Amino acid sequence: MDYPRLGFVPTMGAFHEGHLSLMKKAKAECGFCAVSLFVNPLQFAPTEDLAKYPRQHEQDFEMARSVGVDLMFVPDHAELTQNIQTNVIVSGVSDLYEGQRRPGHFEGVATIVAKLFGIVQPDIALFGLKDLQQCAVIRQMVADLNMPLRLIFEETVREESGLAMSSRNQYFTPEQKSEAAELFRSLTKAARTLSTLNPGSNDAVRITLDETTDSLRSKGFGVEYLDAVDPKTMHPATHIEQDSRLVVAAKFRTVRLIDNIPVFDKP
Ligand code: PAF
User: Fold this and answer.
1) Where exactly are the structural domains of the chain?
2) Hey, which of 31, 229, 250, 263 has its CA 20 to 30 A from 100?
């Protein structure tokens, strides 16, 4: 008899098309799709928006149902976080970028994701590449701890304007949302320039990144970092390779945005 496999999408709710596309993929790959909804307090710093994080469970259940999700797992906060004495620290890939600016964030992510994997025991788990460094952290954790599952990472789903779908986009007015899409346009322009440079032209890479940063700042983006990275190690790309990606974090109005794109278009 052919048993369905279990495809798992861990989430913090406030679903958008990005979540739904992971759920559809899980269902298509496995036949059975489980989704967890848990706003994980361990990955928020005291100064961050845990209390403000959008919670819309009924709407989320409806959306999940509409794409054929078979099971929603909504654990109690205490159930997952009380009295735990184990923290999963994934060094190296967590060191820079988000890890540097959000101390403890990836520890919180890895610890909860490891617990969710232990409870749900999926055959396949799916994550969106919008959180590129999170994907690298989870890939490394699964490899290091020999976790018996396969990972699938899916490209970012975007609004028509190019703005990466994110639960935090709800904080924008429609007008601000279209202005925020400048982040993606600037990344795309920078990627196009980088993809035409001769290998080894590191100065030209730096100049392109600096110019893009300056231009974004002049348009109201508080750029925290903009860099070309190796997506597996999450360290700066020493030179541009086929799989290099551009990563950015910038505050626009009151919202902190992150995004990333491949330097080279995929064939
Ligand atoms: O990407 C998210 O929504 C969260 O970081 C995750 C993976 C569900 C862990 O809490």
Assistant:
1) 5-154, 167-262
2) 263
- State the number of CA atoms in the 13 A half-sphere of 224 facing the CB: 18
CATH architecture of the domain formed by 167-262: 2-Layer Sandwich (3.30)
Strands of the chain, DSSP E: 5-11, 31-37, 71-73, 124-128, 150-154, 221-230, 235-236, 245-252, 255-262
180-197 per-position pLDDT tens digit: 999 999 999 999 999 999
- Asked if CATH classification 3.40.50.620 holds for the domain at 5-154, the reply, yes or no, is yes
Q: Is 111 in the pocket of ligand 1 (CB under 6 A)?
A: no
Q: What is the pLDDT of residues 28-64, one digit of tens each?
A: 999 999 999 999 999 999 888 788 888 999 999 999 9
From 112, 117, 141, 157, mutation site for ligand 1 pocket: most ligand atoms within 8 A of C-beta: 112
Other C-beta atoms within 10 Å of 193: how many? 17
What separation in Å is there between the alpha carbon of 43 and the centre of ligand 1?
A: 9
User: Letter for the amino acid at 70?
Assistant: D
Q: How far does the centroid of ligand 1 lie from the alpha carbon of residue 110, in Å? A: 9
pTM of the model: 0.97
